[in-house]
Amino acid sequence: MSSSMACSGCRRPFVARRSLVGALAVGALELYGPVAIVPAHAQYPVAPDVVVFCEPTLKHALGDVAALWRSETGIPVRLFTSPTWAELEQIAHHARDDLVIGAAQETAGEAIARQLVKPGSIEYLWSNRLVVAQRAGALPTGVDLAALASKVPIALVDPGRALAGDDSKKALQALGLWDAVRAKSIGVIDTGDASYLLTHGRAQLAVVYATDVAADPALAVASELPAQGYEPIVYWAAEAAHALSPNVGKFRDYLRQKEVQARVKVDGLEVLP
Fold first, then answer.
1. For domain 40-127+233-271, which architecture applies?
2. How would DSSP label each residue in 198-261?
3. CATH class in words for 130-224
4. pLDDT tens digits for 71-96?
């Protein structure tokens, strides 16, 4: 018997529902990689693995945390990265997720308003900062950005593309250097692209996150941008509204362990009180 004939009284709803889920799965795969699409309320045993959605700039730090967790518990963490807005859209379309780690306070409010996360589980964990990066050993640390602005190519996230671009513009405006830097800048979509251009010699400097520099031994901090020039870059964690893993709460609590805090500091993050 074919699947479309399995329920004679509900053939059209069944086929339509299957087609919709299939379309969502294909769309998620094309946009974000292999994300598992499952029913919101699974009625079958679930593997102990913890599925985590996080911001791309946290990939290295959370990869280290996941390795520590697995060495202690034996439980894998499945890590998928995408901007916070994309994380929320995936969850809204019932992508399998147990823990979401997003950026910015307003996105946490959006996640609650859309009932995508459990409100009582939201916790602000870490902060990041913007730095001017260089290839390791290329220039002395503490370079004079004002002296180099408009003279050397600087990779910079385009404002409006991502939070990093908006924050970089604000920070450089606070220093009075925005127009000079922009005159010689190479616009990119995200800080990962900025790091790539820097390591491959296409740019001499790049404005990226501290975590980007910590993740790549080929990079070094040339100078820091004043934190008062842009909004604090904070990350929050919350359990997805339809989390399935029996270990999601334990992993969320694990993120506050002292050894984890020490690890993420090495990876460029600052721990919030």
1. 3-Layer(aba) Sandwich (3.40)
2. HHTTS-SEEEEEHHHHHH-TTEEEEEE--GGGS--EEEEEEEBTT---TTHHHHHHHTTSHHHH
3. alpha beta
4. 999 999 999 999 999 999 999 999 99
